[in-house]
Amino acid sequence: ITIAAVVPAAGVGARMGLNHPKQYLKIGDKTVLEHTLSKLANVPRLDKIYVAVSETDGYFAALDLSALAVTRVTGGKERADSVLNALLAMQNTPPDWVLVHDAARPLVEVSDITNLIEQCLTHQEGGILASKVKDTIKRGTSHSEETVPRETLWQALTPQFFPYQQLLTALQQARQNKLQVTDEASAIEQAGQPVRLVSGRSDNIKITTPEDYALASFLMSQQSK
Ligand code: CTP
Ligand code: MG
């Protein structure tokens, strides 16, 4: 079976509050995007890596990605549009499965990616890396109205791994019905199809705010030891 990776990297990083997208922040001597792509390049099961980059991106072309053999595709307005564009770009040579992983998650471990792929292929159903919620969770606006039992709550991570055709159809349906899709799994759920939860490391954080960037820099320095 063939597997393609899709890395959505077309966001502007508004919540980071900088004047350039967070995927181009440096950790050590490499950008966040390069760290992420190197992790994927070390997954033997991946046949091809597509990166969705904004049309107006002024940074991607300057990276030296020659060792990584990645294909640039054009991103879209929302994350789901970037992923859908990437899937459409591979329509002529479609892979059997696609693995979607945020550019902003450079800390993912290769062993977690491999585990997700193996578990999904064994059970022949799509799935995502996720970690069990650890905090006590409250519902409310100005005051806590309720403590939500956390036994069945998970934090969705990436990668998210689905059969190519299934994900393509689900994302197209979600767009047509104007459904809110913040990850691939939400499109699959809305199509009434199963999403396997595969437990992954909770330090596979998404760099969203300056605090995340500080934490990610520290964790990355520990990983490379
Ligand atoms: N992404 C994308 N295309 C978009 C929006 C987001 O490819 N139109 C990517 C981002 O580059 C990131 C991943 O999706 O790697 C996760 O999205 P998020 O953390 O929300 O990144 P941004 O949208 O860039 O950040 P913000 O929401 O703070 O603007
Ligand atoms: Mg965003």
Automatic annotation (TrEMBL):
Concerning Pfam families, the annotation shows: IspD
- Residues at site: Positions MEP for the nucleophilic attack? 150, 206
Q: Which GO terms describe its molecular function?
A: 2-C-methyl-D-erythritol 4-phosphate cytidylyltransferase activity
Q: Under which pathway is this protein filed?
A: Isoprenoid biosynthesis; isopentenyl diphosphate biosynthesis via DXP pathway; isopentenyl diphosphate from 1-deoxy-D-xylulose 5-phosphate: step 2/6
Q: What is its EC number?
A: 2.7.7.60
Q: Which SUPFAM superfamilies match?
A: Nucleotide-diphospho-sugar transferases (SSF53448)
**Which residues does UniProt call coiled coil?**
164-191
The reaction(s) this protein catalyses = 2-C-methyl-D-erythritol 4-phosphate + CTP + H(+) = 4-CDP-2-C-methyl-D-erythritol + diphosphate
Q: Which CDD domains match?
A: CDP-ME_synthetase
Keyword Cytoplasm on entry: no
> Mind listing the UniProt keywords for this protein, alphabetically?
Coiled coil, Isoprene biosynthesis, Nucleotidyltransferase, Transferase
**Site keyed Transition state stabilizer: positions:** 15, 22
InterPro entries given in the database record: IspD, IspD/TarI, IspD/TarI_cytidylyltransf_bact, ISPD_synthase_CS, Nucleotide-diphossugar_trans
The UniProt record lists the keyword Ubl conjugation: no
Q: What task does this protein carry out? A: Catalyzes the formation of 4-diphosphocytidyl-2-C-methyl-D-erythritol from CTP and 2-C-methyl-D-erythritol 4-phosphate (MEP).
The UniProt entry's sequence similarity note says: Belongs to the IspD/TarI cytidylyltransferase family. IspD subfamily.
Q: Supply the NCBIfam families for this chain.
A: ispD
Protein's recorded name? 2-C-methyl-D-erythritol 4-phosphate cytidylyltransferase
Name the source organism. Pseudoalteromonas viridis
**Taxonomy-wise, where does this protein's organism fall, top ranks first?**
Bacteria, Pseudomonadati, Pseudomonadota, Gammaproteobacteria, Alteromonadales
